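Researcher: Good morning. I'm working through a list of sequences from a screen, and I'd like to move beyond sequence-only analysis. For each chain I'm collecting a predicted structure so we can compare shapes side by side. This is the next one on the list. No need for commentary yet; just the structure.
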Amino acid sequence: MYYRMALMVFTLRHLGTIPPEALTPELLLDELTAEDYDRLLDATIAVKKKRQRTKNAAPDSGSPSSPSDTTA
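Model: Good morning. Structure tokens for this chain:
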């Protein structure tokens, strides 16, 4: 559970308004309610899914084919 709170701290430091030095895994373990945790976890999962869809929709960046390949 501590590891999950540490990851949540990392995310919240980038997105939240709590001063970074005050935001610790211990703070979340002591103060975060189960409902709050579930909402943050749901938001994290939604962002991951959105990023995956964006990644899958991006054009393939493979090597471009050479025009000489068809004439060889």
